[in-house]
Amino acid sequence: MARAGVSTAPLSRLHSLPPPRPALLHRYQQPGPHVVLRPQRRAPSTAAAALPTAADLPPLSLPAAAAAAAALAAAVSLSDPERRRRAQAEAAGGGDKEAVRAYFNSTGFERWRKIYGSATEGVNRVQLDIREGHAQTVAKALAMLRDSPLQLAGATVCDAGCGTGSLAIPLAAAGADVLASDISAAMVSEAQRQAQAALAAQPAGSPFRMPRFEVRDLESLEGRYDVVVCLDVLIHYPREEARAMIRHLASLAGKRLLISFAPRTLYFDLLKRVGELFPGPSKATRAYLHAERDIEDALREAGWRVANRGFISTQFYFAKLFEAVPAGSSS
């Protein structure tokens, strides 16, 4: 369900100022052996000379100055990402989980259905790029599972945060017994529709098993599975909540646990902060980056270790993918 896309578009608008031209120097010969370098004086250009000076400008009245200051404060307030996030969470009825649920049941659903889909009409360049990044993450997760000693056919898999089924459906096509869940009822409905279409298109003798779909948040998931997968979800939750979710997911998994997250580095943190200053109309959830050490520590506390890792990066999407196994496992 998570959408690990972080737009770097605003960086294209931040052009560096051209380097200052060195002052033209000429030699002014003083009496004696010393040579002194002094900047050459240049007459102001006609355009510069035509500009008004501060003395030429009319005085700003106190009420006008106060109004200007208030307008500036309002603009800064509206551009404050954390204040905007708090307002979104309050409007949704509380914390991050409620904001995520509300977003992906409304405007977020339409936006991400486009991203996860295959159509190109009405899909902008950024959405196409994020689609490619997410597809690479799904492909890498499938490759990790196929390269493991685990046999997918007949394996029980929990796809936690299934979105529109981009991972659950290929797992089902490989013969896995899949429980696919998402916090968004709209996402689950779309995933079920796509899975039914995929099932109808299967040839005779296909190992495809129709996944079971449920509307659930991560904390309410129950049962035991050979594999638990959680792709592009942790970006919606802060550090401590993410660590608790990892521990809970680990308690459900028996052989493999795959988790993706947006990594916290100086570079990616900068991209995120710049992107937040230019919010789009559909950017309505918080985006959290996580340090690799935090994710590894949470896995270690739950009795798991990272056996394999991958990195996926496009222009507007970046994610780390961890494949974890029980700490005592040899593979």
From TrEMBL:
InterPro entries in alphabetical order: Mg_prot_MeTrfase, Mg_prot_MeTrfase_C, SAM-dependent_MTases_sf
SUPFAM superfamilies: S-adenosyl-L-methionine-dependent methyltransferases
Region Disordered, annotated ranges: 1-23
Domain Magnesium-protoporphyrin IX methyltransferase C-terminal span(s) in chain numbering: 230-325
Keyword Methyltransferase listed: yes
Listed CDD domains: AdoMet_MTases (cd02440)
GO molecular function: magnesium protoporphyrin IX methyltransferase activity
One of the GO BP terms on file: chlorophyll biosynthetic process
Protein's UniProt keywords contain Cytoplasm: no
Keywords annotated in UniProt: Methyltransferase, S-adenosyl-L-methionine, Transferase
A Pfam family annotated for this UniProt entry: Mg-por_mtran_C
The protein's name: Magnesium-protoporphyrin IX methyltransferase C-terminal domain-containing protein
